[in-house]
Amino acid sequence: MDFSFSEELMMLRDLTRDFTDTQVRPLAAAIEREHHVPPGLMGVAIPEEYGGAGLGEAGLCVVMEELTRGDFAVAVTYGAHASIGGMSVLVGGTEAQKQRFLPDMAQGRILSAYALSEANAGSDPGAMTTTAVRDGAEWVLDGEKVWITAGDVADLVTVYAVTDKEQRAHGGVTAFLVPAGSRGFGVGKREEKMGQKGSSTVTLSFDGVRVPDDLRLGAVGDGFRIALATLDRGRLALGANCLGCAREAHALSVAYANQRETFGRPIGTKQAIQWMLADSATEIFAMEGMIWRTAALCDAGEPFSRQSAMVKLFASEALDRIVDRAVQIHGGMGYSAEFVVEKLYRDARVTRIYEGTSEIQRIVIARDVLKRGY
Ligand SMILES: Cc1cc2nc3c(=O)[nH]c(=O)nc-3n(C[C@H](O)[C@H](O)[C@H](O)COP(=O)(O)OP(=O)(O)OC[C@H]3O[C@@H](n4cnc5c(N)ncnc54)[C@H](O)[C@@H]3O)c2cc1C
Prior knowledge:
By secondary structure, the protein is α+β, with helices and mostly antiparallel strands. The protein has 10 helices and 10 strands. The protein has a 4-stranded mixed β-sheet. The structure holds flavin-adenine dinucleotide.
């Protein structure tokens, strides 16, 4: 059993840590205020034969963890492209599509986003009503996708649409790569959110958008499988986001516990505070174990769907507890917008919701447990 990082992963971690400390962290307040993100490391998980760094899902998780330490919104904007947008091409594209798009995606010349959710189809994407109808050598898309992260900055959006109303989630959904700016492609206003304000979240509308058949991603009817297989990776990478945010909240809490004094002694000497720190440290350790083990399964080509749902469920719920403790340890200062923990608390909350809520992760895990046992 070997739990150590390869030399390449350690170099990647140091590089991302340095990028985060010098380029992201100093800008975090401005990113939140001005709602925008600087560009960075795009092709970490894309294999070398397609122009990427070839460091797999483990590499992506390293970057996600480190970027989130600096700013969650930056990491999420990056993830919309590097984790779910671009990954849908890797997971579902034909060889020709991979050759055509992945090198530019790896270099950040093409930015992508992932559009599955609709107003009445979030937890139940099979209820989607966006349609794609074939017309000669083209497809005509009509409908609306909501909550699309980075949908306003992406050049190419992976859109999932119904191509067979009878089959729907069972072979009736197909994926398409829709270029931004296509005629009939509309971008709505940015949602006002509780946290992660620097990352944009928009509605995308499709009013008779014509997409050539060579931008159909994978086979007709294979869209739902591609959507879910992409989410398996996305949920794991999101676990790494949670780990990065948890580490940051915990480090700030430890520093504050050593420095803040009440009754003549640092609050870190009080057992109530020590227990909170111990619980957070334990949960961070558990997150690490789950994330790196699941990344190893993914990169070895083993099944990891249940494990990524477990990572997403545990990491997001543990993060919520950790940021809550961080606010508590900071007392009144934890509630002040001048202290970073207030922002971490707001940024963390959505991790239990997007890429499938905690309830949906439990459904995914339980279904698999009932089928296969532990
Ligand atoms: C900031 C942000 C960014 C996002 N980015 C993207 C993106 O880039 N691309 C994209 O496609 N989507 C994105 N989403 C959408 C996100 O994936 C959905 O919001 C999420 O899947 C939940 O769907 P919903 O909001 O429709 O909630 P609903 O499905 O309406 O759920 C409401 C509540 O009911 C619960 N529930 C639903 N069904 C069940 C059930 N069977 N059993 C038990 N409980 C249930 C849910 O867990 C939840 O608590 C984003 C969302 C947010 C907030």
